[in-house]
Amino acid sequence: MAEIRGSRGGLPERRWWLAVAVVLIAALALPNLVGEYPLLQLSVVAILSLVSMSEGFLWGFVGILSFGQTAFFGLGGYTYTVAALNFDQTTLPLLAAIVLPALLALVIGYFMIYGRIGDLYLSVITLVVTLILEKAMRATSGSQYVIGSVRLNGQNGIPTVPSLAIPWSHGQTLDLTGVFYLSVVCLAIVYVALRLLLQSRTGRVFVAIRENDQRAQLLGYDSRVYKLLAFVIAGAVAGFAGALYGVWGNFVSPDMFSLSQSAQILIWVIVGGRTTLVGPIVGCALIEYLTTALGTAAVGQVTVIMGLILMFAVVFFRRGVIPSLGDGARLLWRHIQSRGARGANVSQ
Amino acid sequence: MSEVLLEARDLEKRFGGVRAIAGVDFRLNRGELRCLIGPNGAGKSTFFKMLTAQLRPSSGRILFEGRDITALEPQRISRLGIGIKNQVPSVFDGIPVYEGLWLAAASRHPGAEAAGIVSEILERLDLGGISDHLVGTLAHGQRQWVEFGMVMALRPKLILLDEPTAGMSHDEVKRTAELIRELNREAALIVVEHDMQFIRDIAATVTVFHQGRILMEDTMANVQKDPKVREIYMGTAADA
């Protein structure tokens, strides 16, 4: 069996666990090293990376291009907010912000996937769903739009999102550093969980479906069940990120559902590369950092420059930054090895 | 052994006004090895696709082991024991050979057993040396072997092979003939082929398709003697 390589099954290698642990520990040490503002930025990058990763997982590994992860992101944010304000506690609302978006994903996913609509239409429908939710939310300015005791406030959003209460303390809430820890740990947990899922039998079938749906069915896999499962998982992750986003800024608004937000998620994934789970995280961090840096440098025309960067990324890093770097490293390694081998031959 | 494994009754497939399959009655016994021949457009591939639910028949019924499978989903039919190698190789291009075979084996065997089946197939098809290559980077002939392997890993009761030797070298064709005879010890097979020598090598009975119907069913020798068959199909091929 030694000569049989190339299997993606089994548990991840020890060095992978080591790498995850090192990065996580380094990240958790950051609050001692940087000020409040960078910490705030890093927290939101970690939170948005969750959405980015949910898209990368769905698109890169299952082959479903969802244009509407923002539907679940926004729904998660609003679910948390409305529930937390109504029930005056935050732990269950955080769970509800996972469950409700997952249910939405289950319902629309069921009709799309079991209705056997084409991949392109699936993308269009997810986009339409998020735009409908955005429009609907923007139209809730009137005082009659109330859920429990909470006014939805239309365009203006809800600026009173409660901070997350620490369950075992009395009334203490997570501060800025706490939110950072929470975001980073959640990102790490979701990353590890998705990685393990992708290496399980189920995850390997996901990739088979991405490669050739018809062949997967001819092998006896009901691809619809697998696609729906993936869609629900991605929806749950995006919903959870939405709740964290609300906690982070104490603010949710219809912009969370918007076209520009949903397009941005795709851009993160394209730039970072969708064939790895790390790619979407890096893409998100990179773009967010550049946007902020360009904004503060007062160069103006940030959108134009970001557009150029996207074009550059698509042309020069076809598969995204991370997979391209991986390819580059492999080429370099082979080059070094072959030179080493040649050197050895010469010395003989 | 003469129990019927597969039966098609008055099967029809219309594409718009065209009757690609125009009323086919077909029977295959358990353990049989059958060849389908016929000119291009005779409906052989359409027939195969209907047997595996890749296409829905316009009318008629398909029975497998006496059970009506006409309306079943492809994955259910696969699990009942029909495996197909399509005319255009239908494989997983972006993943390694090993992984593709494993996915096939694991669809119905638990982990450890699946790994065993994969090793056996890698050895039997001599794919061990390229087990970690991406399927998409292989030559056409090798991709055919990988698809072959995936079908074998399913351990089906009925194997459908649509032009298994297309794009293969002479030696590979010979190996394929051997392999088909080997597989026939455990499973029934239907093979669509154009290579007459190959059919003579492997086949007991030949079914001739013509314009969506079955023209005749007989031994290869008799089929080749038949004037109607010579006229529509064999004319040039028999001389060659």
Report on the architecture of this protein.
Chain A has helices at 14-29, 36-62, 69-87, 91-114, 119-138, 176-199, 201-211, 213-218, 223-249, 259-272, 278-296, 302-316, 321-347, and strands at 146-147, 150-151. Chain A has 348 residues and is mainly α. Chain A has one domain (2-258). In chain A, strand 1 and strand 2 form a beta hairpin. Chain A is globular. With 240 residues, chain B is an alpha/beta fold. In chain B, helix 6 (170-183) links the parallel strand 7 and strand 8. Chain B is globular, with a radius of gyration of 18 Å. At the A-B interface, helix 7 and helix 8 of A face helix 2, helix 3 and helix 4 of B.
Separate helix tally of chain A: 13
Provide the helix percentage of chain A: over 70%
Low-confidence stretches of chain B: none
Distance between the termini of chain A: 33 Å
The tally of beta strands of chain B, per DSSP, is 10
Largest interface: A-B, 26 and 38 residues
Average of per-residue pLDDT values of chain A: 89
Elements of chain B, N to C (H/E): EEEHEEHEHHHEHEHEEHH
Query: How many distinct beta strands of chain A?
Result: 2
How big is the Rg of chain A?
22 Å
Overall geometric form of chain B: globular
Indicate the radius of gyration of chain B in whole angstroms.
18 Å
Order of helices and strands of chain A: HHHHHEEHHHHHHHH
Largest sheet report of chain A: 2 strands, antiparallel
Please count the helical segments of chain B.
9
Give the oligomer, counting copies of the same chain as homo and different chains as hetero.
heterodimer
Strand order of the largest sheet of chain A: 1-2
What structural category arises from helix and sheet content of chain B? alpha/beta
Structural class, from helix and strand content of chain A?
mainly alpha
β-strand percent of chain B reads 25-35%
